[in-house]
Amino acid sequence: MRCQHCGEVAVISMPQHRLKLCEKHFPLWVERRVARTIESFQMFSSDDRLLVAVSGGKDSLALWEILLRLGYQADGLYIHLGIEHEGYSHVSQSYAEAFAATHPDATLHLVDVRARYGRSIPELAREGGRRACSRCGMIKRYIMNRTAREGDYDAIVTGHNLDDEAAQLLQNNLYWLRGYLQRQAPVLPQTCQGLVRKAKPLCLVAERESAAYTFVRGIEYIQQECPHSAGATSIFHKKILNDMERRSPGTKLQYYQGFVRARQDGFIIGDEDTPPLEECERCGQPTTANALCAFCRMLETEET
Amino acid sequence: MDNNHEATLKYHEQEWQINSGMTIRHAIEKVGLDPQSVLAIRQKKLVNHQTIVEPKDEILLVNVISGG
Ligand code: SF4
Ligand SMILES: [Zn+2]
Ligand SMILES: [Zn+2]
């Protein structure tokens, strides 16, 4: 199997793009694809300061590398969730730090949830009688927005890849979660003061392409999964989509891109009366609730 | 059987002895995994799934599907 650009041995075949590439041309192809995604969705401009949400996993580190290679000013944010099973949070932090150490022009911000707010994610979830993941999502979004505002960043970028987005879309479709369908987008602009723009530059890069990219670029990442993700519905949905992809290459891409176009053309109409955002009385972050935001309410109820 | 023609396939804690001469893709399917969801690494290098397994090869399969 040969590279279609140079005839060297190909390291990857991407039937959905009818493309086979070698270890030199494949990473360049990924970088160009991401550059085009950023431009076509007008995610951000070359003057913008970006904050990359880094988990220590393949996608976020691949994204950070790509943005730096494309010449963007991209700093990282690692949120230490306090997940102790097999040292998960410590180990993933060490991968984020190792990456930052080899990229001296980028800064890595570290936020330790327990050190800053008194309890880790699993502890907060236990106190509230919730699953870790349901708390984790809200807390991460809060910390990302807050860190981006405090550091004067123009956009938060996350490493969601095509498989993540297609699986999320399947979930949103199956249950017709209209609010989620409306908010699922490659880029969410700043809709109000205090809510930082969010973008997913890897949304057209398949998960195996992102993993292959990290290998070819020699980026070390945590291969261990968060222990709370065991049995996650998203993995089940990804497998279903991969079965479809095997029968018919390009299915995931068509499914997601078709949705994005439909959304842009106004086929997904949201809730007309979304409440306006106010400032949280305690922390000043935007919230739809009056008085306290969901994060401050969680800290307050779980303090008592 | 002559072990010299065998190769090793590794995935997490699992390990299989496979015959050389087939493609990596075929080997992955033979042990019951989905080729879409793994990358194959040989001598620390990414190799495509059409690569023929050579005798004594050690091929590491890396899962690419993450959840959460
Ligand atoms: S699997 Fe759940 S707990 Fe773990 S990082 Fe993801 S959302 Fe957080
Ligand atoms: Zn090439
Ligand atoms: Zn608040």
Task: Describe this structure as you would to a colleague.
- The complex is a heterodimer of chains A (about 300) and B (about 70).
- Chain A has about 300 residues and is an alpha/beta fold.
- Chain A has a single domain (about 45-270), classed as Rossmann fold.
- Helices cover about 45% and strands about 10% of the residues of chain A.
- Chain A has helices spanning about 25-40, 60-70, 90-100, 115, 120-125, 130-150, 160-175, 180-185, 205-215, 235-245, 250-265, 295-304; strands at about 10-15, 20, 50-55, 75-80, 110, 155, 185-190, 195-200, 280, 285.
- In chain A, the strands form three sheets. In chain A, strands 5-4-3-6-8-7 form a six-stranded mixed sheet, with helices on both faces.
- In chain A, strand 3, helix 2 and strand 4 form a beta-alpha-beta unit.
- The mean pLDDT of chain A is about 95.
- Chain B has one domain (about 5-65): Phosphatidylinositol 3-kinase Catalytic Subunit, Chain A, domain 1 (Ubiquitin-like (UB roll), Roll).
- Chain B has one helix at about 25-30, and strands at about 5-10, 15-20, 40, 45, 60-65.
- Chain B has a five-stranded mixed sheet with strand order 2-1-5-3-4, with helices on one face.
- In chain B, a hairpin with a 2-residue loop joins strand 1 (about 5-10) and strand 2 (about 15-20).
- The chains are: A alpha/beta (about 300), B mainly beta (about 70).
- The interface of A and B includes residues 13, 58, 242 and 246 of A.
- The complex binds iron/sulfur cluster and zinc ion (ZN) (2 copies).
- One zinc ion (ZN) binds near residues 3, 5, 8 and 21 of chain A.
- Iron/sulfur cluster binds near residues 132, 133, 136, 228 and 229 of chain A.
